[in-house]
Amino acid sequence: MTASIAAQLIAASLTPDEYRALEEKSETRHEYCDGVSIPMTGGSYRHSQIITNLIVLLATAWAETEYTVHANDLRVWLPEWQMGTYPDVLVITGEPRFTENRTDEVLNPTLIIEVLSPSTADYDRTKKFSKYCSIPEFREYLLVAQEEPAIDRFWLGEDGDWRWRRTEGLTETCSIATGNLALPLSKIYRSVSF
């Protein structure tokens, strides 16, 4: 990426279309929120391994279902917040809905998974979660710890209120409503040392 593109990506007051055009040319990814482009940092081995394990586990379980699993290179657009973000893992139920004629920006994930990093954990738990709640199809959110085998699961109850449950330990299983699936933590944390 040239210095010129890098400078434009972090400049304030980009329109969504300016951001998208720059992002298409960029060698690194940037989140976008209300005119500001924010560079994304690289992940660790542990972070990457957990994401890989989740994708393999989910994609295998849902090989011939209506659920599609996507890695952290597909952007989710939140129109209400004028925000583009790259969740670590996202699941779409049925057909994807895209922003206008784009194929790199979806609007309708039902399950979003973030693998927590020390620098983003608080944001993922609070502001980012509240912004994800603006997605009409969004029903479930998993926050997967890196430093210990633990998952915080949030799901939308039938009454419209969000619920929370924490699952800890390699011998435990986190059950999710999306696809009625049980996720053994031993498989999520396979090849991860603590």
What descriptive keywords fit this protein?
single chain; 194 residues; alpha+beta; 5-stranded mixed beta sheet; disordered N terminus
Question: Can you lay out the helices and strands and say which pair or pack?
Answer:
Blueprint: H1 3-10, H2 16-25, E1 30-33, E2 36-39, H3 45-61, E3 67-70, E4 75-78, E5 83-85, E6 89-93, E7 105-106, E8 109-115, H4 121-125, H5 127-132, E9 140-144, E10 150-156, E11 162-168, E12 173-176, E13 181-184, H6 185-188
Parallel strand pairs: 4-7, 8-9
Antiparallel strand pairs: 1-2, 1-5, 3-6, 4-5, 6-8, 9-10, 10-11, 12-13
Would you give an account of this structure?
- By secondary structure, this protein is of the alpha+beta class.
- Helices cover 26% and strands 31% of the residues.
- It is built from 6 helices and 13 strands.
- Strands 3-6-8-9-10-11 form a 6-stranded mixed β-sheet, covered by helices on one side.
- The longest helix is centred in the first third of the chain and has 17 residues, at 45-61.
- The radius of gyration is 17 Å and the shape is globular.
- Mean pLDDT is 89; it is low at 1-11.
